[in-house]
Automatic annotation (TrEMBL):
Pfam families: LMWPc. GO terms for molecular function: protein tyrosine phosphatase activity. Its EC number is 3.1.3.48. This is protein-tyrosine-phosphatase. Gene3D superfamilies: 3.40.50.2300. Keywords: Hydrolase, Protein phosphatase. Residues 57-208 form the Phosphotyrosine protein phosphatase I domain. It comes from the Bacteria. It is an enzyme of class 3 (hydrolase).
Length: 226
């Protein structure tokens, strides 16, 4: 019988050791109580962010060219929203049915009347686009002509229902006087009259928006106060 070579002896002596270590390691893992392995993940806190705010409620005022009545209405209503402490819940903007002055500021008489009554006057004119309906919750027309024009742009009954006349929110407005008249061809007193009519309707509009916010899911369960 031929004696084994020294190299063969070394391989034979090492191989069982490696296997033994693997088996031992496997046995040690198997010997650990199942509950101990489960406990490894316990006690770790899940990191969560702050609760999500509900999406903003968006209101858009629309007149003819977006340089007189609608920027005035937007400025007044923003002030009402701030006073109500709802700036984090309500967004306000404005537009015109036409784009004649797109990119320009408000009429100087609008700026003067707003400043005289303590309202902000930052504004850039733009034209209302049909796709904006999907991004707005309420589209407020300043007169009957704007109401009809906007409803023609609407793509279905859901969008039609978003369009309302501003003075419909004024309980003191007569049924045959629902328009805020265009002051463009008048003097500063016509612009002041517009502001007065807008202010009279703003309170009722604020009540409407509050009611809609209260109807949103989650407002009765830890949501931001109205």
């Amino acid at each position: 019988m031929t004696a084994p070579s020294p190299r063969g002896l070394r391989r034979a002596s090492r191989a069982p050791g490696k296997q033994d270590r693997k088996d031992q390691s496997s046995d040690q893992r198997d010997d650990q109580p199942e509950d101990r392995r489960k406990d490894r993940g316990r006690g770790r806190r899940r990191v969560t962010g702050p609760p999500k705010r509900p999406p903003a409620y968006r209101v858009c005022f629309v007149c003819t060219a977006n340089i007189c009545r609608s920027p005035m209405a937007a400025s007044v209503f923003r002030a009402r929203v701030r006073e109500a402490g709802l700036s984090h819940r309500v967004e306000v903007d404005s537009a015109g049915t036409g784009g004649w002055f797109e990119g320009e500021g408000a009429d100087l008489r609008t700026v003067a009347v707003l400043a005289r009554n303590g309202y902000e006057d930052e504004h850039t004119a733009r034209q209302f686009r049909p796709e904006w309906f999907a991004e707005r919750d309420l589209v407020v027309a300043l007169d009957e002509g704007h109401l009809l024009a906007l409803r023609r742009l609407a793509r279905g009954p859901v969008e039609v229902e978003k369009v309302r006349l501003l003075r419909s929110f004024d309980p003191g407005a007569a049924e045959d006087e629902m328009d805020v008249p265009d002051p463009y061809y008048g003097g500063i007193e016509r612009f002041q009259l517009c502001l007065d009519l807008i202010e009279a309707a703003a309170t009722g509009l604020m009540d409407e928006v509050r009611g809609r916010l209260a109807e949103e899911p989650g407002n009765g369960d830890g949501a931001d106060p109205l």
